[in-house]
Amino acid sequence: MDFSKSVTLWILCLCFLGESLMEKQGSVDGEQQHTDSSVSELCRIDKPLCKDDNALLSFEAICSIHKQMDDDANGNVDVLETDGFLREDLNYHDPKAKHNSFHGDDQFISVEDLWNVWKGSEVFNWTVDEVVEWLIAYVELPQYEESFRKMNFNGSAMPRLAVKNATLTVTVLKMLDRNHVQKIQLKALDTVLFGPPLSKSHGFRSAVHADVKRLSRVDAGVMLFYIYGCV
Ligand SMILES: *[C@@H]1O[C@H](CO)[C@@H](O)[C@H](O)[C@H]1NC(C)=O
Ligand SMILES: *[C@@H]1O[C@H](CO)[C@@H](O)[C@H](O)[C@H]1NC(C)=O
Ligand SMILES: *[C@@H]1O[C@H](CO)[C@@H](O)[C@H](O)[C@H]1NC(C)=O
User: Fold this and answer.
1) Mean pLDDT across the stretch 144-165?
2) Which positions carry the signal peptide feature in this UniProt record (predicted)?
3) Exposed (0-12), middle (13-18) or buried (19+): which is 179, by Cβ within 10 Å?
4) In this predicted model, what pLDDT tens digit does every residue of 28-66 receive, in sequence order?
5) Where are the domains positioned within the chain?
6) In the chain, at which residue ranges do the beta strands (DSSP E only) sit?
7) Using CA atoms, how far apart are residues 121 and 197, in angstroms rounded to an integer?
8) Number of the ligand 2 atom closest to the C-alpha atom of 125
9) Which has the closest alpha carbon to 173: 204, 141, 196?
10) Most exposed residue of 15, 61, 84, 177, measured as fewest CB within 10 angstroms of its CB?
11) What is the pTM of this model?
């Protein structure tokens, strides 16, 4: 991905991340009922999964990510910034062709597109063990392994970590340190949008080059986050 595109995307991501942190601060997001609209939307897009409560929670998280990215609230995310990540990070070798089937004529990403991209990610099929490996090696928060295992947290639930939910992070996963919550939120968002940090078959650590590339992307994002002060 060329640097300017990656930077643009990261500003975008970090701005909506910041916004969502602000937005939901102080709100008690306990046992919330699924809204009828998200149920019917998921049933329209993905009939086999719409009876599944866990899938619905992940779908609501994807909707919330989409909503934060969709600055002008027209229901779609502009495709310009996503070209880079389609090509580089999701391994679509011919992004133009992909765009055409992916976006139709309007060149925008809808909730449905984002859901389908997410379902096509190998992370969606990760087992609990693979998520724990991610937690230890990539997020570097091994102390929460037990909570993740207790909750049977597998890859399909990853989007829920990418959006603010104090019930999940504090109450269920027992993350009492605010910095840990932010760290895992950022890394989960990265993993949901861009796929696994590294090819799993090589382990998270051994592919040094990829690791360095990845870290620099995150670091650039974090740096800009402070410079532009999105929050
Ligand atoms: C995930 O697993 C399902 C069921 O085994 C399979 O149909 C699907 O292709 C897998 N997706 C990916 C991205 O590997
Ligand atoms: C992940 O967990 C969900 C809900 O518990 C389950 O439906 C799904 O089959 C699991 N996926 C994998 C790959 O184990
Ligand atoms: C937050 O997480 C909890 C526990 O996993 C879940 O029951 C609740 O529905 C989530 N809230 C939202 C708004 O997704």
Assistant:
1) 96
2) 1-22
3) exposed
4) 443 455 677 889 999 999 999 988 999 999 999 999 988
5) 1-45, 127-204
6) 77-78, 108-109
7) 12
8) 13
9) 141
10) 177
11) 0.69
Token representation of residue 136:
């230890």
- Which numbered atom of ligand 1 lies nearest the CA of 121? 13
Model pLDDT, residue 225: 43
15 lines ligand 3 (CB under 6 A): no
Q: Rounded distance, CA 166 to CA 217, Å? A: 27
Least confident of 5-9, 76-80, 106-110, 197-201: 5-9
Residue with tokens 């880079």: 84
Closest-lying ligand 2 atom to the alpha carbon of residue 154: 1
Residue nearest to atom 5 of ligand 2 (CA): 54
How does pLDDT run across 119-153, given as a tens digit for each residue? 999 999 999 999 999 999 999 999 999 999 999 99
**130 close to 155: Cβ distance less than 8 angstroms:** yes
